[in-house]
């Protein structure tokens, strides 16, 4: 069943059946204030960190699902009938509702009991609060007297402590109503800042005041959940609504909520605006800032703030644009894929319907990869994040696997973490030409200050010192695949994928140094060549590359293996790392097609592990066909697509790309949002294939964004220009790309009359043919490029 569709321009996903298989969410945020909102108004709000700055509560894995949220109750004062402006928790028939998820906002429309409503949720760019902008229209043909109540359940501080220590933690809650400011305020006088649950008593208070206000005069309010809901009730039938019981009392303990009630009279066909705003003010500026609260619920401010959101996303998405014969591809690549990639970058992979921000901070490898999605449109943000990553590195090249903004982190023995830093830095420089970043001074964790260049060399040093008996990377506690976590045993084991990854990253560094004419690359070249030689000599299994050497010489990912015979990563990265034997790479990619491809996309490995093997790790304990145990793990499929493009296989690359599009599968099977990628899709190794999970916060979006533009339509940055190298399906006879690069907009039209997969006959830049396939840098604001694919067509100017 389909539950919705994209708007004509592709910028909105419109849910027409709100009984979606799982909550389908969106993100509204400004970089400091974050909120999620589902198609039924469920979700959380937090300031800066979902662990330390939780504003509202969300009950994980609860029944009923997706509660609490950002609810608005409407009650007819004459009949006593009430409902919510979202179908849950107290809505009318689901057919009365429609949800619009847009870029930076979500709107819910309804027509219940003759009252048409549209509530739009968004977060202004420059103020730390969220807006619930309600427009009510009386369609009933008679005058209506309405009672309208906004409701949130507060958490106030540390998200994990709120879950595991409510019995004590709630005794530090405070809430009161300020009549002069027309706002309800809440805070906590005790604030834990440890990253995990602890018995350590911290003598500090939460540094924020939460507030909840409206543009209409608040005449009643409630501050305790039990008083609002009734002790044995839920959000479906709050006693405050059904029995008109608002205590109008402050709270000095307990489950603090914000419930504010306003009244509204509507003549027939009259339309009125009701605005609610939930936000925070820092305590150090509270007395100065709180007097401005009435200003942020004025209609003029709301209209201006919403336009800012629309303009912000239009500017971000305007740096790349594509037109292909496939409308579905255009919708995703012009809107939702870069949007998801930016959300993942800004949120930091810590909060979604699946991840509720209570256990981990930023991931070093995740963050490094997320950088590549924002270098095009927001290079200054990419640079900030690179410098943040730099501060998580030790002078020997080790990095925190997970880290927080406050400088705390977790050291593990993942062999790949530091190497992703090279990717972030080199892609940033290619995009911007900002070589000065290499001279930026940033402290290592162990206090030794060094330049970004010093940090890059520290990564090389880490790689050199992390090789095992085959001169391949010591596996440690995992590589990119965290679930191969016990392969190492006593002697460490070795990662074959890690070796390919090291070669690929060293290639990037060598390329940069050679462009800058850095002398004395002997040691780096020697390291790269040694690892590459050992991959070629020791890791080929006849039809594909093995995955790892385990404890005592055990081989993972071999044709001799009973389970987990072939893994996708070592086949794709053989191409990405530019191994010299191309015949092996072609054979390896053919093996992926034969053994790993499925209706839902290529699997991460096959056959799935069905027997637990503690010498391999968590992957064998996972359900076959899910997660890393034989699922269609979407992130590595992007690398497979890149590999097929490198090997000039446009048809196969497009096939894999198309299979992963989230709206391709029936939503009753897929279940997750059909407008963003999920981490994985259950494969045919499971009895119920096709179900997606862990949507939004996945590296898939960042990589698919770049792989599509860099390798499929083939417009990728280099240190001295833009490379043009499309690798496309033969059915695409024409594509048009707009790409902003170093201040110039390149408008590139590609014609493919001979229906080839790759190859260029000629390129015209502003009407003049150039040699090769690299567009030179230009001072022009707009540069027109025509590309003719094929190998035998004569150039137009002959």
From TrEMBL:
What are the residue boundaries of the Glycosyl hydrolase 94 catalytic domain, all occurrences included? 312-714
Ranges for domain Glycosyl hydrolase 94 supersandwich: 11-281
Recorded GO terms, molecular function? carbohydrate binding; glycosyltransferase activity
Question: Which InterPro entries does the record associate with it?
Answer: 6-hairpin_glycosidase_sf (IPR008928), 6hp_glycosidase-like_sf (IPR012341), Gal_mutarotase_sf_dom (IPR011013), GH65_N (IPR037018), GH94_catalytic (IPR033432), GH94_Enzymes (IPR052047), Glyco_hydrolase_94_b-supersand (IPR010383)
Please verify whether the record's keywords include Transferase: yes
Q: Which UniProt keywords apply?
A: Glycosyltransferase, Transferase
A Pfam family that this protein carries is Glyco_hydro_94
Q: Name one GO biological process term.
A: carbohydrate metabolic process
List the PANTHER family: CELLOBIONIC ACID PHOSPHORYLASE, CELLOBIONIC ACID PHOSPHORYLASE-RELATED
Protein name from the UniProt record: Glycosyltransferase 36
Which species? Answer: Melioribacter roseus (strain DSM 23840 / JCM 17771 / VKM B-2668 / P3M-2)
Lineage, top ranks? Bacteria, Pseudomonadati, Ignavibacteriota, Ignavibacteria, Ignavibacteriales
């Amino acid at each position: 069943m389909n539950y919705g569709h994209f708007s004509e321009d592709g910028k909105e996903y419109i849910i027409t059946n709100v009984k979606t298989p799982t909550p389908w969410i969106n993100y509204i945020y400004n970089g400091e204030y974050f909120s999620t909102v589902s198609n039924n108004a469920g979700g959380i709000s937090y300031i800066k960190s979902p662990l330390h700055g939780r504003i509202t509560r969300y009950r994980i894995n609860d029944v009923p699902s997706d509660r609490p949220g950002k609810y608005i109750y409407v009650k007819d004062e004459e009949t006593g009938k009430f409902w919510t402006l979202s179908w849950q928790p107290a809505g009318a028939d689901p057919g009365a509702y429609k949800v619009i998820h847009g870029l930076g906002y979500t709107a819910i429309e309804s027509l219940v009991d003759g009252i048409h409503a549209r509530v739009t949720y968004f977060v202004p760019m420059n103020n730390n609060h969220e807006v619930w902008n309600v427009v009510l229209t009386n369609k009933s043909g008679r005058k209506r007297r309405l009672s309208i109540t906004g409701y949130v359940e507060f958490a106030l501080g540390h998200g994990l402590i709120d879950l595991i220590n409510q019995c004590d933690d709630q005794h530090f809650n405070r809430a009161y109503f300020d009549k002069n400011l027309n706002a309800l305020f809440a805070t906590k006088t005790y604030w834990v800042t440890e990253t995990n649950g602890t018995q350590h008593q911290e003598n500090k208070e939460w540094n924020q005041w939460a507030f909840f206000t409206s543009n209409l005069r608040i005449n009643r309010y409630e501050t305790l959940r039990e008083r609002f809901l009734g002790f044995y009730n839920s959000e479906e039938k709050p006693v405050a609504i059904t029995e008109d019981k608002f205590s109008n009392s402050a709270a000095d303990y307990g489950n603090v909520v914000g419930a504010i009630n306003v009244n509204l009279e509507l003549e027939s066909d009259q339309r009125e605006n009701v605005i609610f705003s939930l936000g925070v003010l820092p305590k150090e500026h509270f007395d100065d800032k709180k007097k401005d609260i009435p200003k942020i619920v004025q209609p003029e401010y709301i209209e201006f703030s919403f336009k800012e959101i629309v303009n912000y996303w239009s500017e971000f998405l305007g740096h790349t644009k594509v037109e292909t014969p496939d409308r579905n591809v255009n919708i995703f690549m012009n809107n939702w894929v870069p949007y998801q990639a930016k959300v993942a970058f800004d949120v930091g992979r810590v909060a979604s319907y699946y991840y509720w921000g209570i256990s981990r901070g930023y991931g070093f490898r995740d963050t490094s990869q997320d950088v590549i999605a924002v270098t095009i449109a927001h290079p200054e943000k990419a640079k900030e994040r690179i410098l943040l990553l730099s501060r998580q590195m030790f002078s020997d090249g080790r990095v925190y696997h997970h880290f927080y903004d406050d400088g705390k982190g977790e050291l593990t023995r993942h062999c790949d973490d530091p190497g992703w830093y090279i990717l972030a830095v080199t892609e940033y420089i290619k995009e911007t030409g900002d070589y000065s970043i290499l001279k930026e001074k940033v402290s290592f964790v162990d206090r030794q200050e060094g330049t970004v260049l010093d940090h890059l060399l520290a990564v090389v040093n880490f790689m050199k010192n992390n090789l095992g008996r085959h001169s391949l990377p010591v596996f440690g506690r995992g590589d990119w695949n965290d679930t191969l976590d016990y392969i190492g045993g006593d002697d460490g084991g070795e990662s074959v994928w890690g070796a390919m990854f090291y070669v690929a990253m060293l290639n990037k560094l060598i390329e940069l140094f050679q462009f800058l004419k850095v002398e004395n690359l002997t040691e780096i070249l020697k390291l790269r060549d040694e690892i590459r030689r050992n991959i070629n000599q020791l890791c080929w299994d006849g039809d594909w590359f093995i995955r790892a050497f385990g404890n005592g010489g055990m081989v993972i990912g071999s044709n001799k293996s009973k389970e987990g015979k072939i893994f996708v990563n070592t086949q794709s990265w053989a191409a990405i790392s530019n191994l010299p034997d191309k015949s092996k790479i072609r054979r390896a990619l053919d093996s992926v097609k034969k053994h790993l491809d499925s209706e839902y996309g290529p699997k991460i490995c096959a056959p799935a592990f069905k027997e637990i093997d503690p010498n391999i790790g968590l992957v064998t304990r996972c359900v076959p066909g899910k997660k890393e145990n034989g699922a269609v793990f979407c992130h590595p499929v992007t690398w497979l697509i890149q590999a097929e493009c490198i090997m000039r296989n446009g048809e196969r690359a497009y096939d894999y790309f198309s299979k992963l599009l989230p709206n391709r599968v029936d939503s009753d099977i897929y279940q997750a949002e059909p407008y963003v990628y999920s981490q994985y899709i259950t494969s045919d190794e499971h009895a119920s294939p096709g179900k997606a999970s862990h949507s939004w916060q996945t590296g898939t979006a960042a990589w698919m964004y770049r792989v599509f533009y860099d390798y499929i339509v083939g417009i990728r940055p280099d240190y001295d220009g833009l490379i043009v190298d499309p690798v496309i399906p033969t059915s695409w006879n024409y594509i048009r790309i707009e790409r902003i690069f170093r201040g110039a907009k390149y408008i590139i039209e590609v014609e493919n009359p001979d229906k080839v997969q790759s190859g260029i006959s000629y390129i015209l830049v502003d009407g003049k043919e150039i040699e090769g396939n690299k567009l030179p840098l230009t001072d022009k604001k707009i540069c027109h490029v025509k590309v003719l694919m094929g190998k035998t067509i004569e150039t137009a100017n002959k």
